[in-house]
């Protein structure tokens, strides 16, 4: 099933969203007072110190958890659980090792009841889009870590979601592979124009990938800085004069948040 956005509402809207976790000593606040609105096609990068609630924020948007307070909507519809309008890429590829690459990408479509011929065509198209058309019959363990993560991205894109959520998807990769994956993701998004929410602890990665960037405070996570990037997304933004200045502003905010945590 493909998904079509409404042209009249924000792709994603959070109003005073907070989330608490239960513990033996009472509730632990993870997020508090998160308010933001994201238009279709924007790329939101979320950074902050460890424990600031970045992954919790992504899980709330994905529908894996519900906010303790506040409202969260996707194209005007309250989020009550996971749905085909949101695709998720996790820190690890989480592929099924006994299935072929193609079958992994088809998996969500098969669960949704998409006919075999259609799901195969869509899966092959996504594999071609991430540059892995020649790996369809291989098993995940025959691929490198970066290639496995590209398969995971293809799987998330196959149902044609409006929003793709990524939780530090390149964190386990070596530096060279990570940089190459960042560049490939930018190229991919030029073709798909999906809305992206990207969680990272790497400031440079956030500035490279985000058209908007927010910094979360120490727990409970609150937005302490929000920046819109006017860097040239069609080119390499690292060469733009404003890249270093934006990176420094974000870095200083993350440092301040980390200092407040101690």
Layout of strands and helices, then pairs:
Layout: E1 12-23, E2 26-38, E3 43-47, H1 54-62, E4 69-74, E5 77-78, E6 86-89, H2 101-111, H3 116-129, H4 145-157, E7 163-167, H5 175-192, E8 195-199, H6 203-209, E9 212-216, E10 223-228, H7 241-260
Parallel strand pairs: 3-8, 3-9, 6-7, 7-8
Antiparallel strand pairs: 1-2, 1-4, 4-5, 9-10
Helix pairs in contact: 2-3, 2-4, 3-4, 6-7
Domain ABC transporter: 12-243
GO molecular function, one term: ATP binding
Keywords: ATP-binding, Nucleotide-binding, Transport
Please supply descriptive tags for the structure shown above:
alpha/beta; 262 residues; 6-stranded mixed sheet
What is the compact description of this entry?
The chain has 262 residues and is an alpha/beta fold.
Approximately what portion of the residues adopt beta-strand conformation?
15-25%
Structural class: alpha/beta
Low-confidence segments, given as residue ranges, are none
Broad shape: globular
Report the count of strand segments: 10
Structure description:
The structure is a single chain. By secondary structure, the protein is of the alpha/beta class. It is 35% helix and 24% strand. The protein contains seven helices and ten strands. The protein has helices at residues 54-62, 101-111, 116-129, 145-157, 175-192, 203-209, 241-260, and strands spanning 12-23, 26-38, 43-47, 69-74, 77-78, 86-89, 163-167, 195-199, 212-216, 223-228. The strands form two sheets. A six-stranded mixed beta sheet has the order 6-7-8-3-9-10, with helices on both faces. Strands 2-1-4-5 form a four-stranded antiparallel beta sheet, with helices on one face.
